Amino acid sequence: ILFNLKGQPVYSSQKEFTQYFPKSGWVEHDPEEIWSTTKETLRDVIKKNKKIKGKILTIGITNQRETTVLWDKKNR
Predict the structure, then answer these.
(1) Eight-state DSSP code of residue 1
(2) Which string of b and e fits 3-34 if b means at least 16 CB within 10 Å?
(3) 2: how many CB neighbours lie within 10 A of its CB?
(4) For residue range 13-28, what is the model confidence (pLDDT) as tens digits?
(5) DSSP H or E run through 2
(6) Is 70 strand, coil or helix?
(7) What is the pTM for the complete model shown?
(8) Which of 3, 32, 48, 68 is the most exposed place for a label (fewest CB within 10 A)?
């Protein structure tokens, strides 16, 4: 959702990504797919409102509020 500086929703975009079920009761997602999907939806919102000219202050990702992404800082 793109919000204006008054906190009002202006445009929205969403896209689903793949869910993996490695064990009963477990759900996993590919963090690279989450990030690429986030960028795609951001580009879509920017296209819908050309006045912002790509000037986005912040972005946020929410995904069931139970998602953790871990990485080795030596490799990233």
Answers:
(1) -
(2) eeeeeeeeeeeeeeeeeeeeeeeeeebeeeeb
(3) 19
(4) 888 889 999 999 888 8
(5) strand 2-3
(6) coil
(7) 0.66
(8) 68
